[in-house]
Task: inverse folding
């Protein structure tokens, strides 16, 4: 099997929870930290090691993309990848798959290559918003051939240097635009003085704390003291050892499962301090009435299967929307999620996909531009839960399937984007100690 190719579909009956859950789960490394570690290592002056990297389609596509432009990445040891930077080469192409991190983080790096670098991806990747990256690079003096599409496919007409300097962007569709520009900025001749000038705020803000923290760890000078403005000085990044935390977005559905089916679920090794957006699930589950505590070697959620109705603004933790929506879709309600207009540009239009699938299992749902309200949940009939090639739609189907008998996901292989073993780990967690 080619781990960077779009996976073949695999139907999967989500396991039904016959009893309360009792599980301890270990999750792989953070996608976002692995992606940043790879990019910062590639831009550094010396070699780096990435300990406990996420090994999944998105991060392997990033590895392949970096190799394509001349970076040495040794992935032979699953627990420690090594990155050996080199001069970036053009005359090559990059497959972004469906990875937002690849389609946004790599073009500003490729702009430093000595010739053209072509980018394309899965069919749906061409529909994901990428006008921000294309306009930004043009604003920094880089030529982009995009056939007027302002989206994939496009070619970065790299000439070896990027001027950098002051730049206004609208990052309201994706925070990844800001992360992408900040990471490459130490290698721009003038660094960057970046302003977000959009009408709506930048979503998913913890990811910006993550990028600023990791840039500083690599030796960059970053000033983020003013809202919506980031300044990065030109300078050398250092190679170092990165240790990747467990992925809290992938962990969250397991804790949410305890709230849906009742019982106790622990995620091992949950960091006590982190910039990961998924950490928000601790407070959210508490707000919904679950008990959340540090025990059994990690973070434990004890749920009743009857979450307390409420209204959540998930602008900063929007990837939690699918799994929480599934919890709400099978609970009494009402529940409202707002602030997530930008997830319409994720792996699929997640607002529309969730509303469609929740209605199929009998939930009464109103759709808004920036979210939805579950007036009352449903618990059947079972049938097919469509995943839209979206790993987090598969996680959501798994949560719903805990209490909707006979729910079959049309495809669980899409979870390979960030966790190829998701289905097996989920099955084991639901079966518990039987
Ligand atoms: O920077 C990152 O690593 C990410 C930022 C977020 O993107 P958006 O700002 O587009 O939501 C998040 O949803 C994505 O999964 C990972
Ligand atoms: C939005 C997501 O991914 P991407 O990095 O492709 O934007 C996600 O993983 O939920």
Result:
């Amino acid at each position: 099997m080619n781990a960077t190719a779009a996976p073949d579909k695999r139907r999967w009956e989500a396991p039904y929870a016959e009893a309360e859950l009792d599980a301890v789960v270990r999750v792989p490394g953070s996608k976002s930290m692995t992606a940043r570690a790879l990019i910062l290592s590639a831009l550094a002056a010396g070699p780096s090691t990435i300990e406990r990297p996420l090994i999944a389609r998105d991060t392997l596509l990033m590895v392949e993309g970096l190799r394509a432009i001349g970076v040495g990445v040794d992935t032979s040891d699953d627990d420690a990848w090594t990155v050996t930077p080199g001069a970036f080469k053009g005359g090559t192409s990059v497959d972004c798959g469906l990875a937002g991190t690849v389609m946004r983080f790599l073009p500003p790096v490729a702009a430093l290559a000595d010739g053209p670098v072509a980018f394309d991806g899965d069919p749906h990747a061409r529909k994901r918003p990428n006008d921000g990256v294309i306009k930004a690079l043009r604003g920094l003096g880089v030529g982009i051939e995009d056939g007027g599409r302002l989206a994939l496919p496009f070619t970065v007409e790299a000439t070896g240097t990027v001027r950098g300097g002051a730049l206004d962007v609208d990052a309201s569709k994706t925070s990844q635009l800001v992360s992408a520009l900040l990471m490459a900025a130490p290698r721009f001749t003038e660094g960057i003085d970046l302003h977000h000038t959009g009408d709506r705020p930048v979503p998913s803000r913890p990811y910006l704390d993550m990028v600023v923290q990791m840039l500083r760890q690599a030796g960059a000078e970053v000033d983020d003291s003013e809202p919506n403005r980031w300044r990065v000085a030109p300078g050398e990044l250092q190679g170092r050892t990165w240790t990747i935390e467990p992925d809290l977005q992938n962990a969250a559905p397991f804790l949410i499962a305890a709230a849906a089916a009742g019982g106790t679920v622990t995620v091992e090794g949950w960091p006590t301090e982190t910039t990961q957006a998924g950490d928000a699930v601790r407070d959210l589950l508490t707000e919904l009435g679950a008990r959340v505590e540090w025990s059994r070697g990690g973070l434990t959620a004890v749920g009743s299967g009857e979450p307390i109705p409420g209204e959540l603004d998930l602008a900063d933790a929007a990837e939690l929307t699918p799994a929480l929506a599934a919890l709400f879709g099978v609970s009494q309600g009402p529940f409202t999620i707002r602030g997530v207009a930008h997830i319409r540009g994720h792996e699929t239009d997640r607002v529309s996909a969730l509303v469609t699938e929740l209605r199929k299992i009998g939930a009464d749902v109103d759709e808004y531009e920036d979210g939805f309200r579950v007036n009352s949940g449903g618990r059947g009939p079972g049938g097919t839960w469509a995943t839209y090639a979206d790993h987090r739609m598969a996680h959501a189907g798994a949560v719903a399937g805990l209490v909707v008998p006979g729910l079959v996901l049309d495809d669980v292989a899409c979870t390979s984007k960030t966790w190829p073993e998701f289905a097996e780990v989920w099955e084991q967690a639901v079966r518990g100690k039987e």
User: Anything to note?
Assistant: The mean pLDDT is 97. The chain is about 30% helix and 20% strand.
